[in-house]
Amino acid sequence: xxxxxxxxxxERLVEGVFAKAFRGGLQPVELGRRLTREMDANRAVGVRxxxxxxxxxxxxxxxxxxxxxxxxxxxxRELADAAREHARNEDYGFMGPIEITLAAEPSLxxxxxxVSGEVREAPGGMEVGSIVxxxxxRVVVGExxxxxxxxxxxxxxxxxxxxxxxxxxxxxxxxxxxxxxxxSMNGTKVNGAGIRQHRLHDGDEITVGSSxxxxxxx
Length: 218
Fold this sequence. Notes:
The chain is of the alpha+beta class. It contains four helices and 16 strands.
């Protein structure tokens, strides 16, 4: 399901002005397919379960790199999302944030590419995670506590009248990442259930007011 969604998003990504460029030659979706195979081929059992690479380096022919350059940033975001979705579907874990790089390799002919995947641990070996906002933007959970609220100076600012000025916090407790309600007027929910404090797991949906945020362990 994750790869199919990735393919559909890429189809939309290359519509319009990019359409002619992708009638032949290397297709962006081929990178996504190879990425998921790289994850499957290099999975290993660790203390936290099945661990897969989280840092991927793609080497492309110069001609293909030039064709991709106009939307390389969007493509790397889509590839990272494809990795997250595949990991969720297969119950894989990451040791650090997902990193995708694209670079030209002069020795490669058009349509040929290479990819290498590496397990790259987060600083201090911390559990990794990010909060995905309704608009698709992402806030990485670092060492410092993140405040969710209606105020513009909140780390996760949510424009929603049902959200308190300082509504909830995302904080670390040991190796866990938890969400804590700050006595908000309308409360905080995780996967539809009201909480005061809750350990977050990959894919958990946090509801504040009428806004939904998603926690991703990557």
